[in-house]
Amino acid sequence: MSIRSYHLTAVAALSMALLASAHEHGEDHIPEGETISVDPIDSTLWVHIILMTAVWGILFPLGMVLGIIKNRWHVPVQLLATVLTILGYSLGHMHKGRQFVAGNVHAKFATPLVFLLIGQVALGVYLRLHLERGFQGRIRPVFRVAHGVLGKAFPLFGWVQMVFGGITALGFCQGDHLGQCAAHFIMGGAFIAYGILLTILLLVGQVWLKRTGRSPEFFDSCVIAAWGCVNTFTEHRWGTAWVKNDWQHTTMGIIWWSAGLAGVWLSRGRDGGPQRNFVPGFVILITGWAMSAHPQELMISAATHAMFGYTLMAAGLTRIIEVAFVVRDKNSVSSDSTETNSFQFIPVFLLYAAGFLFMGATEEQMLLVASSGIDHVAYILILYSLAFLMFLFVNMLVHLYDRTANAELLAAKNKQSQAAEAAAARLSGTTYDDNHQMRDVEEFELSERASEDEEDTVGEEQSVRQTLLKQEASQNTEGDFGPALAISNNQVRHS
Are 158 and 54 in contact (CB under 8 A)? Predict the structure, then answer.
């Protein structure tokens, strides 16, 4: 079957999946005022969860990177992900066990997501046909851009849908819990996204950064200032009484936009060029300090929020150290931006960890964990483990892109280092092979000298031993013939 046939099959299957979604779930087991029944999640729904997590969390991001580098495996991987999505979507409408209210956020977002997937597949089919004459040639660039933008947005769509799936499966974020739940997931996801962007910028984004003529802190400070403005006017319902943590949330927004504006100003040097500064790191640090002292009702919630605060403080402090002492106000540790210092990964990873800690610290999650018997140490270690897995996967995707997109740059870097080594060897008057040969000769001569010394030592020992033996033999001979010599001497004297 050709690639075009695969695309058409995928479109047809997606259409059939939409028809299958017309199946209605029962709600007769759902207690009044609740959004889920008390029934357990059955095996069919577990397969749906695992399958869709693998497809949208791994395969689609992998296919996106393969498409960016124009790898021949892009189409097969995306087709496999599409087919598995159809299977998972069907399983989501065939399960028994736990029931969910109709119109939940996961179900609402699934329908437009499927239509976007159908559109993405259709754009892929059109681009594979290579219709470039007349009107087709004029609209093809538009479709190419739309296909690229939509493909790069799919990992984000998948992340949001997975979060919605977890919320729906557990019946969270309803009623009075909606506000704080949204705040935790949005801010936690923002920290993870911040970490992902810094990973890309650290490993492959330096060339783009040079083209912009800006320092990283310029973009960080702009986002911090914008986020601060949103927090200042949304964390408290103006016109009502100040309750619970309104003061902390609102003042946190104020310091964000204040510090963000200062960071934008400091991102330019006296000569107008890009300049690194401490502001984003300091904002992260002081935000962590504020969150570590956030009052909580449950002990496990207080411990989780405190660890979130400490993690943010560590991220901010290490970011300041990186800027001031590791790269010394430069964008990279090397002039060609192909090298990184191991310390630079610490603030990046800590942002991943902070994001997962905050996403896992909603009121309902804390009640669930407290009732399960898991202590705060085990729970925090689980969240850190998720952060490491996400950090690993992002680095793998960036590595895949880097080894293909920057292959010529890396090869030139390798040749340059080899040429530098050869030049250094020529200045010393020897080549690499000569050095090895000279080293072998020296080792051989040293071994010969050692053997000669050993032989000389052995010869001396043997001569000493022979001398001693002769002396002993002479003494023995004198002892045996001594009396006879004495008698002969007396006879001579008498005569």
Answer: no
Please choose, from the candidates 360, 274, 261, 265, the residue with its C-alpha nearest in 3D space to the C-alpha of residue 311.
360
d(CA 196, CA 345): 11
Instruction: Report how far apart, in Å, the C-alpha atoms of 481 and of each of 30, 470, 485, 488 are.
Output: 127, 17, 6, 11
Residue with tokens 């898991």: 374
CA atoms of 52 and 82, how far apart (whole Å):
10
Q: Residue 233 burial (CB < 10 Å; 0-12/13-18/19+)?
A: exposed
Distance CA 298, CA 350 (A): 25
Residue whose structure tokens are 């997975």? 162
- For the chain, residues with pLDDT lower than 70 are 1-25, 429-495
CA 57 to chain centre: 14
* Helix axes 279-292 and 299-321, enclosed angle (nearest 10): 160
What average pLDDT does the chain have? 84
Taking the mean position of all CA atoms in its chain, how far away is CA 427? Answer: 42
Q: How buried is residue 193: exposed, middle or buried, by Cβ count under 10 Å (0-12/13-18/19+)? A: middle
* pLDDT tens digit sequence for 3-49: 555 555 555 555 555 555 545 567 888 988 888 999 999 999 999 99
> How crowded is residue 490: how many other Cβ atoms within 10 Å of its Cβ?
9
How far CA 471 is from CA of 68, 461, 478, 482, 483, in Å, comes to 94, 16, 11, 16, 20
Tell me the two tokens of residue 282: 């300091």
Q: For residues 49 and 289, what is the distance between their CA atoms, to the nearest angstrom?
A: 36
Q: Which residues pair with 268 in a beta bridge?
A: 274
| Residue 72 CB neighbour total at 10 angstroms | 7
Q: Side chain identity at 77, as an amino acid letter?
A: V
Q: Per residue in 453-479, pLDDT tens?
A: 555 554 555 565 566 556 655 555 444
Two tokens, residue 76: 């097969």
Distance CA 219, CA 211 (A): 14
Looking at the chain, the whole-number percentage of residues with pLDDT higher than 70 is 81
* C-beta neighbour count of 447 within 10 angstroms: 10
